[in-house]
Amino acid sequence: MKNNKVVSFERGADFYFGLSFKHIQSGRLKTALRYIEKAVKIKPDDSYMQFNYAGLLAELGHIEHSTSVLLNIINNLDPDYDECYFGLGCNYLQMQKIKKALEYFEKYLKLVPYGEYAEEAEHLVDMLYLIIEANNNLDDEELEHIYKMEEEAIKFMERREYEKALKNLEEVVSKLPNAIPAKNNLSLTHYYVGNISTAISIAKDVLEYEKDNIHANCNLAIFYNKLGINNLVERQVRLIKKLYPDSEDYAYKIADTLGCLNRYKEAYDAYRRLIRMDDKNPQYIHLMAVAAFNCKKFNEALDLWKKLQKYDGESYLGDYYYGLAVKAKEGIDDFRYLPYICQLPKEEVGRRIDKVYQFLSLEKDEIKELIINDNSIKEIIYFVISFDKLVLRKMIFDKIKKEEIIELEDVIRKYILRPDVDKSIKIESVFLLNKIGCKEPYHVLIDGEVKAISIEPDNLLKGEWRKEWEDVKNTTLKMMKNCYKTPYTNIVEDIWYDFIKSSYPDVPKIGRIEIWAAALEFAYCRFTCKDVTQQQLADKYKVSKSSISEKSRIIFSYIGNKFGERE
User: Which of 264, 484, 506, 548 could disulfide-link 294, Cβ–Cβ 3.0 to 4.6 Å?
Assistant: First the structure.
């Protein structure tokens, strides 16, 4: 008899390294990373492979990992590998660790004063000394703290929590008096809280340091306009019109300011300059259309809103404003200037919400009739569940579930492909589709990838629901109360029901309720990307971590694959 043997064939590190290099040349960096990781795993002491691995990590934005690889090379493999020092300098600079970056650039120059990157390193060293001087010679840790405070302040401003923003920005500016962006934001924040004289004073300080600063000049125009000092507004507008921005941010600031001042012709020119920088940006297209409309260039505005429908089908703006422009052009409606904002007018939002409340008040047959006779109702429901993802979306979902309105299936299917919808809401939406009888699979955008999800038929447990299953669910919901900001009840119920249904009739025996309850909460957190550990849940439920691990593995073995999750 012939003896057939299966011979294992292992590729060498050089093979995988070569494949990685080919993928880098083709621009497929993520694929290249997979191969180079195999190479360095086989040859962990090869400093050249490790160096290239670090470079690829940095290219993909994994700066901290790249840094750890470079440090391992100079500390454990080859302390004379000079290019590592330059790479470390670049990494630390990207992480805004200024003094650390300077340290490694200087080490590189000491090792190889005429090296390949010597000229660039010298330039960076000179620049870093200037930055350190401008940063009052603060340590990297303190600078990092200040930068975080500044980032927090910007978030406070976006949420209109101006008092909190003011506190942060005042500390930032006290530590870094020459931090121009922070001073401009501080000036704006004082304006928002009503301290206009202080806002003006800070803006003038910025202009003494940098007379052509676009943000300070634009802010001053807004401040003077608020005070009604027309001659100073005119002076600022003349100054702003002479400024030639070299970035989209600056061009947008000028256009937005002129729009806010109702300088329609100047705003039109400014938005035209902005859209030349990026003629596919939906926000710029809409604002350019508004500027054209306000100058009564109706044909241009119509063309732009038609273009907006092509580039941003989810914004609702194109359809609404196109119709509005048609009516203005044909004299059906009186002409009214439009604000330079990327949203529907408040009255239109209110009209759509009123329409949804009407929908919620109807019986099932009336809803079906409404959907047949009103072509806009689906678009309005889609808009509202996207506009208000918590309260109104929940009310609409409950209505669809209660009345089994399968006619709105296409609305929900479209909704779960939106990138701005939380994963937990998408999971709830999938269970909703299943419960109203929509056919599988359900295509969902999760983690940047469209996944086809299936759920078992909902007909296995009529009259079979056991008390211990209900006790697990109720215990979980009780323990989760006040611990999560987003709605969780329906999702927990759906996960648990789906687990029981998927394992039925061989549902695992429920012993201690608290262990299964903790495992169910862990499953919820995994599915909805909540940051929790099994040890935290073990302490909370007063059970062992290993028991949670065991039961959660069982849950995931039945339903984990539906959302790409694994224990």
Answer: 264
Task: Provide mean pLDDT across the span 251-255.
Answer: 95
How many Cα neighbours within 13 Å face the side chain of 153?
Answer: 26
CA distances from 250 to 264, 275, 279, 418 (A): 19, 13, 16, 30
CA dist 536 and 141 (Å) reads: 30
Q: pLDDT tens for residues 48-98? A: 999 999 999 999 889 999 999 999 999 999 998 999 999 999 999 998 888
Q: For 148, list phi and psi in degrees, rounded to 5.
A: -65, -40
pLDDT digits 0-9 by tens, 3-30: 444 434 456 788 888 888 888 877 888 8
Token pair for 519: 């495992």
Is the peptide bond prior to 441 cis by the omega test (within 30 degrees of 0)? yes
Rg over CA atoms, the chain: 30
Taking alpha carbons only, the member of 474, 463, 461, 409 closest to residue 437 is 409
pTM: 0.62
DSSP 8-state code for residue 73 = I
Q: Which two tokens stand for residue 313?
A: 């089908």
Domains defined for the chain, CATH in brackets:
244-341 (1.25.40.10), 346-449 (no CATH), 478-563 (1.10.472)
Other Cβ atoms less than 10 A from the Cβ of 208: the count is 9
Sequence-distant (6+) residues with CB within 8 A of 296 are: 335
Tokens 């196109």 locate to: 322
* Residue whose tokens read 């590998």: 81
Q: Scanning the structure block, which residue is given the tokens 């090379």?
A: 73
Helix (H) or strand (E) holding 450: strand 449-453
For 288-322, give the DSSP string: HHHHHHHTT-HHHHHHHHHHHHHH-TTSSHHHHHH
- Provide the 3-class DSSP secondary structure of residue 370: helix
Terminal-residue alpha carbon distance, the chain? 45
Residue whose token pair is 């995931």? 556
Q: How many CB atoms are closer than 10 A to CB 440? A: 14
Give me the torsion for CA of 57, 60, 65, 70, rounded to 10°.
40
Contact assessment for residue 486 and residue 529, using Cβ atoms and an 8 Å cutoff: no
Q: 27-44, pLDDT tens digit by residue?
A: 888 888 888 898 899 889
